[in-house]
């Protein structure tokens, strides 16, 4: 800047365009840098659930019936089809009056009674009754395999189905997205004022939905956002979603919308006031929105008890239901829960529905149709769509092309032979600790050469002449053609095995594809690292 002071015209030009300069320096492809990682995380959640690109929304065929009217609220039974043949089931609690009212979506966690749980630790009917009395329409929903949602067992996961994004996490997330569609379709709901809250596994559903759907305006995931425990059920551990992040980053995707983090001294959220809350609050600081995030720490075990619920009521009252009213001293009034018969949608599970295999076949057909249509558009020259798929494929693999200064390349040896030089290397990236055994065949002269990377499931040895202890004919032909040639042992091939047995990865906790790329993805990364070298 001092060198520019002599040039008043340049100085004035910079000052006149300062805001534009700042914008250009902080954006990439129209996205701010602070949102670039958020875009990746959202895309991975949707990819893992077969929801990228977002499917066409089929008719819900929603049925609302069995109304029980009280003086200050009503409760009804609900079912609709998130996918054709796949039913979402629950209860609808409504205030008295015509509205439009704000709405609250309430998924439940792994309590045995599901959405009907009513005890000192958690009461979903009590939460719903109170919110309805406060002036909100409330929809409580069954997790897959609970109560009236009997088409699928809750704890199931098949690798074949996961490749299609079909698993409990995916079905529940799409059911949640369609639940917002259902709420917005109700004449007494204000479609611009929707909140979501749930505890435990319901907390996971809460932050997954708020991460991918901007229609969620206020959220309170309870006793779930943790840097150390990410959820113990298959319905909380979809593939891809935690390659480089924990639930903290997913929770931060709510910013700058109002977020209440309720934690407890007796579970994995015990450190929230000191760890998770400050971390997520720092993201809100980037938006200038620290007044929209709060943490309430409860001295209790894993719960959504009365104290936790009252913290949620006050937050939702202030940010969603009626900002003009003072909710600071609001407490939960007594309530009386309906009988199970009045809340159950399908008594004894007796309702006609498609089998799980029929539902899966329907989802597969829709995905195939969507991908086939996109493929034709790309072939016809849709470069924007092609770029979207490139990014999605990159995020699925978790792979990147390293910059040259990110590489950690160690040469082990060098031999001069007739017509070429042989170098043995270990290639990798400085921050990752990966190690790729490699052999480079290059010309003796230091000039530039075109290069070829050769890859085989058998590793480097597939291109060697074991009898003559040297390169095979394919490498020799390329050398004669003036090419430099690199052969590598990708992840868990070649030198990654001992001579006596095959090396395999240790599967930890049953959810390895949630936290780490697959063997294939690691091998693709090794190729990209080698290309960068």
Structure description:
The chain is an alpha/beta fold. It is built from 16 helices and 18 strands. It has helices at residues 8-16, 18-25, 33-48, 124-134, 159-163, 168-185, 201-212, 247-252, 276-286, 306-321, 340-343, 356-379, 383-397, 473-480, 512-515, 519-532, and strands at 27-28, 31-32, 63-69, 73-83, 86-95, 101-107, 137-141, 189-199, 216-222, 259-266, 293-301, 410-417, 420-427, 436-442, 451-454, 464-465, 470-471, 484-488. Strands 3-4-5-7-6-8-9-10-11 form a nine-stranded mixed beta sheet, sandwiched between helices. It has a five-stranded mixed beta sheet with strand order 12-13-14-18-15. Strands 1-2 form a two-stranded antiparallel sheet. A hairpin with an 8-residue loop joins strand 13 (420-427) and strand 14 (436-442). Helix 4 (124-134) runs parallel beside helix 10. The longest helix is centred in the last third of the chain and has 24 residues, at 356-379. It starts with 7 loop residues before the first helix and ends with a helix. The relative contact order is 0.10. The mean pLDDT is 92.
List descriptors:
5-stranded mixed beta sheet; 9-stranded mixed beta sheet; single chain; 22% strand
């Amino acid at each position: 800047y001092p060198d520019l002071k002599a040039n008043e015209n340049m100085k004035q030009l910079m000052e006149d365009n300062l805001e534009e300069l700042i914008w250009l320096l902080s954006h990439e492809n129209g996205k701010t840098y602070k949102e670039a990682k958020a875009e990746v995380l959202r895309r991975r959640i949707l990819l893992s659930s077969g929801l990228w690109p977002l499917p066409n929304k089929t008719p819900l065929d929603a049925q609302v019936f069995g109304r029980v009217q009280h003086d200050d609220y009503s409760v009804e039974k609900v079912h609709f089809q998130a996918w054709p043949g796949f039913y979402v089931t629950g209860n609808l609690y409504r205030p008295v009056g015509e509205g439009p009212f704000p709405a609250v979506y309430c998924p439940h966690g792994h309590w045995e009674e599901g959405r009907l749980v009513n005890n000192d630790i958690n009461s979903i009917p009590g939460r719903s009754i109170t919110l309805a009395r406060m002036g909100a329409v409330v929809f409580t929903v069954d997790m897959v395999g609970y109560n009236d949602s009997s088409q699928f067992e809750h704890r199931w996961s098949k690798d074949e189905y996961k490749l299609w994004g079909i698993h409990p996490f995916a079905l529940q997330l799409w059911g949640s997205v369609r639940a917002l569609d259902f709420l917005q379709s109700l004449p007494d709901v204000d479609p611009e004022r929707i909140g979501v809250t749930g505890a435990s596994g319901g907390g996971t559903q809460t932050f997954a939905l708020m991460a991918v759907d901007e229609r969620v305006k206020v959220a309170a995931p309870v006793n779930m956002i943790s840097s150390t425990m990410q959820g113990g059920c298959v319905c909380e551990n979809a593939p891809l979603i935690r390659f480089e992040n924990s639930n903290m980053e997913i929770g931060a995707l709510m910013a700058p919308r109002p977020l209440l983090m309720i934690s407890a001294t007796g579970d994995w959220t015990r450190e929230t006031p000191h760890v998770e809350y400050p971390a997520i609050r720092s993201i809100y600081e980037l938006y200038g929105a620290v007044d929209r995030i709060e943490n309430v720490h409860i001295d209790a075990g894993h719960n959504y008890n009365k104290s936790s619920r009252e913290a949620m009521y006050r937050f939702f009252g202030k940010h969603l239901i009626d900002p003009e009213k003072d909710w600071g001293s609001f407490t939960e009034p007594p309530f009386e829960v309906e009988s199970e018969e009045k809340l159950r949608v399908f008594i004894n599970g007796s309702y006609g529905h498609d089998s799980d295999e029929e539902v899966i076949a329907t989802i597969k057909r829709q995905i195939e149709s969507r991908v086939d249509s996109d493929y034709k558009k790309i072939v016809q020259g849709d470069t924007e769509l092609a770029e979207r798929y490139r990014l999605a494929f990159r995020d699925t693999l978790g792979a990147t092309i390293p910059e040259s200064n990110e590489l950690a390349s160690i040469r082990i040896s060098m031999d001069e032979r007739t017509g070429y030089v042989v170098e043995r290397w270990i290639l990798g990236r400085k921050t990752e600790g990966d190690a790729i055994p490699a052999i480079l065949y290059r010309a003796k002269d230091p000039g530039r050469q075109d290069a070829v990377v050769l890859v085989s499931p058998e590793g480097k040895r597939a291109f060697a002449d074991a009898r003559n202890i040297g390169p095979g004919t394919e490498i020799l032909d390329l050398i004669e053609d003036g090419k430099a040639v690199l052969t590598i042992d990708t992840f868990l091939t070649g030198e990654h095995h001992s001579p006596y047995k095959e090396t395999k990865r240790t599967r930890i906790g049953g959810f390895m594809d949630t936290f780490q790329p697959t063997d294939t993805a690691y091998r693709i990364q090794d190729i990209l690292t080698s290309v960068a070298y």
